[in-house]
Amino acid sequence: MTNFPRDGTSAATAAALPEATIDRASPVPFYFQLAELLEEEIVSGRWVPGTRVPSENDLGARYGLSRTTIRQALARLEQEGLVSREKGRGTFVSDSRPRSWLIQSTEGFFHDEFLRAGRAVRSRILRLERVELPRWASDSLSLPAGSEGMVVERVRSVDGVVALYVINCLPAFAAEAVVGLQPDESLYQRLVEAGGISVVGGSRSLQAVTAGAKLAKLLEVDAGAALAYIESVTWDETDRPVDCYRAWLRTDRMRLDIQVSAQGAAAGSMPFLVAPVLR
Q: What pLDDT, in 10s, does the model give residues 171-190?
């Protein structure tokens, strides 16, 4: 692999391209396949930050793809923060750390994971108030209809790009602990520090949805754009539900990671289950 200086003066031709090819029989779009191939070079460390990505002409010749398809692939990598395109100079690797959320983690949503990875997590609080919980939340928390609790509604960004819209609902016994929650503060860490409440397990489900007008505006996407929709309930060491949420994730800016193990192999692990939705 050749690393290119950022002044563009190198006489070298291109970084080494992966040997893999585009599967033309696959239903997966060509641009997505190409983006995955190039992302693997970056996150594996074979292409380090500062490396110049091969030109559109070189990529087109190597993989037999149109310039439009190549630009779509590069745009996806740019949205993920993995490359930056500089007019008149080319495309450069900007970061080797993928934005991914280990969805079965019991930590404070994805906040703590990304902070440890060196990512900048920012939140905008749209709502933080003690009110009657919506019916979906009281059902999830095993509470009678009309029960009071805390509703926390936020838009969350990673490295300056909007990635997630989430509504958390907490029962009354946990509400006081999150009064005064700050925009960039971890909700679950706040529960521990202010309420002595630790999340030890939970259940999550995932499905694909499209953005309506409200979600499109909040997440800065076009109406009808594909999103991942996640529902979650978490509980403490006494199996008491302490939080539930509904979240909508931009999958063009965030990847969901799932770790699996043989059944019973990891005591205390929280599996992630995907079940069909009947309508």
A: 999 999 999 999 988 898 89
pLDDT tens digits, one per residue of 31-88: 888 988 888 888 777 888 888 999 999 999 999 999 999 999 998 888 777 888 887 7
38's tokens: 């190039």
Cα separation of 114 and 125, whole Å? 19
What SS3 state is found at 238? coil
Residue appearing with tokens 């953005």 = 211
Domain residue limits, the chain? 1-96, 100-257
Q: Which residues touch 141 (CB under 8 Å, ≥6 apart)?
A: 133, 147, 149, 169, 171, 233, 241, 244
Annotation: CATH topology of 1-96: Arc Repressor Mutant, subunit A (1.10.10)
Tell me which residue of 111, 106, 117 sits closest to 242, measured CA to CA: 106
Which of 3.40.190.290, 3.40.50.300, 3.40.1410.10, 3.10.20.90 would CATH assign to domain 100-257? 3.40.1410.10
Q: Are 163 and 157 in contact (CB under 8 A)?
A: yes
Please report the pLDDT score of residue 185 as a whole number. 87
76: amino acid identity, one letter:
R
